[in-house]
Amino acid sequence: MTESPDQPAMFRPRYAEIATFMRTALVSDPAALDIALAGVPYDGGTSNRPGARHGPREIRNSSSLMRAYHHVTRVNPYALCRVGDVPSERIYDIEAALDEIQAFFAPLHAAGVVPISAGGDHTVTLPIFRAIAAERPLGMVHIDAHTDTWDEFQGSKFHHGSPFRRAVEEGLLDPRRTVQIGIRGAQNTPEGWDYSLSSGMRVIFMEEFTALGVEAVIAEARRVVGAGATYISFDVDGLDPVYAPGTGTPEVGGITTIEAQRLLRGLGGLDLYGADVVEVSPPFDPSGNTALVGATMMYELLCLVAESVARRKGG
Ligand code: MN
Ligand code: MN
Known about the structure:
Order of helices and strands: EHHEHEHEHEHEHHEHEH
Structural class: alpha/beta
Strand content: 15-25%
Number of helices: 10
Bound molecules: manganese (II) ion
Strand order of the largest sheet: 2-1-3-8-7-4-5-6
Largest sheet: 8 strands, parallel
Number of strands: 8
Radius of gyration: 18 Å
């Protein structure tokens, strides 16, 4: 194994160096990248326990434990694509904050760079979609305890329970090419679940996930999104809080870490235009395990996206 000239820190002690995502170089010129790892430290759309604004920093720290070669697929994403960490910052008035997030991702998209981001609460996926899906709606594999297709909450259309309803309304997300996996937990009204189902999304509640098993869920997810342009959004609360307690809206009875890894590895070959890991909330994560899980899922997503980008480049 030789040192990659683009990623010298990968072969230095993992506790040394500046804590970028996966020890990649910090890059400010999008032209230098195929895939941008980006933090979106915004949690102004949280409906209950806050703290996901601290997610990117802790995921960056834990991601120093990630290495190059995937042990199952033998993919080395850094050999397939130019990968770097890009800086960002934003806060306050939610609609202005969403505009700022969109304005951050739009030039990356214009430069042909595929984003893999760490939230932040799930609200941040909406402005990312606004930046990358304007030319055609995306399909989506969405792992979450919640459908995030609710409408107004406390007088706001924009919060972490509504991004995918807004994305459908804005023509950014194709509900017929959307699969939601791991849904569970009581709600005060069923309107979000009903919106997902009536709009044509395939909703795999946790009970069906358990009954089908991971392989059948993979087959169903692949059937739903098909060969078109697709996004993967991974809300860490889709996992059981045994594995990921540090999150704003934990729901017991969820997906295990190995099930999630198998599920993501089963999505190889999809035509991917972005991915995210959201809702890691370090203030509720005293062991740090949720940040490690988030970083690990981000690495799984990086391997998938790198293969997809390399295929499009003809590599
Ligand atoms: Mn969510
Ligand atoms: Mn959730």
